[in-house]
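call fold target=L,D-TPase catalytic domain-containing protein
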Amino acid sequence: MEWRVRTDKKRRRRSLVAISAVLGGVLVLSACGGGDDDGKAKGGDTSSSKSQSDVDAAAAKDASKAKITITPKDGATNVGLNDAANVAVTDGTLTTVELKTSEGAAVAGKIAADGKSWKPDAALKRSTKYALSATAKDEAGKEAHENASFTTVSPENSFVGSFIPDDGQTVGVGMPVSITFNKAIKDQKAVQAAITVTSSSGQEVVGHWFSAQRLDFRPEQYWQAGSTVTLKLALDGVQGAPGVKGVQNRTATFKIGRSQVSTVDAKTKKMTVTRDGAVLKTIPISAGSPENPTYNGQMVISEKFKETRMDGSTVGFKNSEGKGEYDIKDVPHAMRLSQSGTFIHGNYWGSDSIFGSVNTSHGCVGLNDAQGANDPNQPAAWFYDNSLIGDVVTVVNSPDKTIKPDNGLNGWNMSWADWKAGAAS
């Protein structure tokens, strides 16, 4: 019996040794990641944690002095498309920067000549996830690395503004800068503050909101002939409405040509073309009939068509069958004066005798012309060839009302005080 007791004791000691070995293994495995509040590893022996700490400290001491900053921050969403992604470094120079889409498509970019910054060559794409990695070296040649990923703004969370006139275009003195946004703008003050329009003439230029999606700019008087107008859009990242940001950074310039303003007298049925203050030509016209008079007011030529179709049904002139009262498929030398359908155009179907004597149109201003728009000696052809988009055509002495300022590019029919009152504040 005594022998059995000893044997049991030996077995117990062997079990305890085995358990201690297992527990010891656990302690060794957990020593790298855990410890008591005093920082010592559980189990009493701290030699391994001390050696790891020494290694970490040595690595940090030997690290590159270069500090890389990536914008936007890692994990950012709704990132703008222009100038939002960039890399900068201090105490070093960039050696490589890579920007790729989640599909692996590389985005071209350039490191600045001084090696201190990088940016992509073009605007980023909407609703796209990007990964950016950068490497830099300090003066000792030691490398530093930084990585970030971000997602650009989606179409649902962004807005853009299309504008006229086009960049580089030469236009008449009446041409406003007209911007149409693809979404309603709630914070009009913030958006307008991010847009500047200036003239080389020094004229004061003010914006006016015609609606939540249209913003026009003009000076008090017509632009000065020969001046240059510059439009700057700095909308990238600007919040136009809750959760909706702009994505544009763009500069455009256009030239103001000679000053041409033509006055249509609906009563005398003549148009006087004045250029740079001198009468250039007087042309017989046929304006709107008494039943369909032409609008009064200052109207800006917004489009030019050598030939176009005019269907009365598209502007409310329908017969009893619901068809247009007129449908002419080859109207020559047509120039738009309003969004509602007012044109100044050639007329080949009317008798020569009506021009200068009878108002016969549905509201347009007609000039004598030939079918096919190929006779340069016709009055309509001459006026078309001598007109620019942005030239002003002013109608007077018509029995109709003055055209509304937002019907086309016709904000000149608003007083300067009223115009300025429509600016965001």
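return ok
The CA atoms of residues 6 and 12 lie 10 Å apart. The chain has a mean pLDDT of 87.
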